[in-house]
Structure formats: structure tokens, C-alpha cells
Amino acid sequence: MKNNTVFNCSIVDLSKVHTIAGNITVVENGDNIPFEVKRVYYLYDVPAGVERGGHAHYELEQYIVAAGGSFDVTLDDGLNKKKFILNRPNLALHVVPGLWREIKNFSSGSITMVLASEIYKEEDYIRNYEDFLKLKK
Ligand code: TYD
């Protein structure tokens, strides 16, 4: 398990192309993202009051973007917790490997877009918090 801390994670401004017809934000491998994107997925139709996440990854890192609406992401390295409020489509939270994450307070109609450094592998997940804490020691 990587010994990253919550202080290795930050909000990145992806910037935007502003026109009178609206905005465009671009994420491009080799430009404004520090890993190669292998998978994109998004959460939508999230029922009110639901909490998601509740896991860590051994290797995968990701950008989490509020492509629509807002939600809160709490990161936990076993010692420290840090809460990030995502509410703008041009801001990405860079989540490095080895951190527990919980996502909640989804606004109605919100879209959580995730850009991931790996394809989906269940073996890369730690889904039990006690196991996570042991691995961080
Ligand atoms: P999970 O990653 O646990 O969701 P979250 O952290 O957002 O709560 O995934 C939920 C379910 O979806 C789980 O059964 C695995 C499946 N899934 C895939 O099949 N492929 C994927 O790329 C992802 C992210 C999830």
C-alpha cells in the first residue's frame, strides 16, 4: 500500500475556454493531468442522501470532477482526513493511490466524472476500513 497522505492530494484548475456560447474544459494526456487516462466513468441519478466511495486503491489514481452540480469528497490516510467540496466543472480533485475516500452531499442532478489511471480491477480495491488501517501501518 502506497504511503501517500491527504496532503498529496489537491484541487487542480483545469482551466476553461470561455466563449459567449458557453465554456469548454479540456483534459488531455500529457498536458494537464499527471497520469495517463485509461478509463472514464461517471456517476449520475444518485439518490438523495446516498454516500459512495468507501474504499481505497492500491495503485489507481484519479481525477474527480463535478461535471454537474456538487458533492463533497473526504479523503483519509489513516491519520488525517481532508474534505474537499467540488462544485465547478473546471476543477478536479487529484486523488493519489492509498487513500480512503467517501463521497456524499450529492446535489440533485449532479454528475461525478472520474478519470482513472487504470482499467477496472476489483483486486486493486480495499473495501474494508479495518484492512485499510492495517495496510497503512
Ligand atoms: P464502486 O467503485 O464501488 O463505486 P463507488 O466508489 O462510486 O461507490 O463501483 C460500484 C459498482 O460498479 C461495483 O459493483 C463495481 C462496478 N464498477 C464496474 O463494473 N466498473 C467500473 O469501472 C466501476 C468504477 C465500477
Structural account:
This protein has 137 residues and is mainly beta. Helix content is 6%, strand content 42%. It has one helix spanning 129-136, and strands spanning 10-13, 17-19, 22-24, 39-43, 52-57, 62-68, 71-76, 81-86, 91-95, 100-104, 111-116, 125-126. The strands form three sheets. It has a five-stranded antiparallel beta sheet, with no helix packed on it. The chain is globular, with a radius of gyration of 15 Å. The N and C termini lie close together (10 Å). The model has no long low-confidence stretch (mean pLDDT 97). Thymidine-5'-diphosphate binds next to strand 4 and strand 5.
Main β-sheet, spatial strand arrangement: 1-9-6-11-4
Query: What series of H and E elements makes up the topology?
Result: EEEEEEEEEEEEH
The hetero molecules present are: thymidine-5'-diphosphate
**How far is the first residue's CA from the last residue's CA?**
10 Å
Output mean pLDDT: 97
Radius of gyration: 15 Å
Number of E-state strands: 12
Short summary:
The chain has 137 residues and is mainly β. The protein has one helix at 129-136; strands spanning 10-13, 17-19, 22-24, 39-43, 52-57, 62-68, 71-76, 81-86, 91-95, 100-104, 111-116, 125-126. The longest helix is centred in the last third of the chain and has 8 residues, at 129-136.
Question: Which features characterize this protein?
Answer:
12 strands, 6% helix, 1 helix, 5-stranded antiparallel sheet, globular, single chain, mainly beta
Element layout with pairings:
Elements: E1 10-13, E2 17-19, E3 22-24, E4 39-43, E5 52-57, E6 62-68, E7 71-76, E8 81-86, E9 91-95, E10 100-104, E11 111-116, E12 125-126, H1 129-136
The site of thymidine-5'-diphosphate has 7 residues, from strand 4 and strand 5.
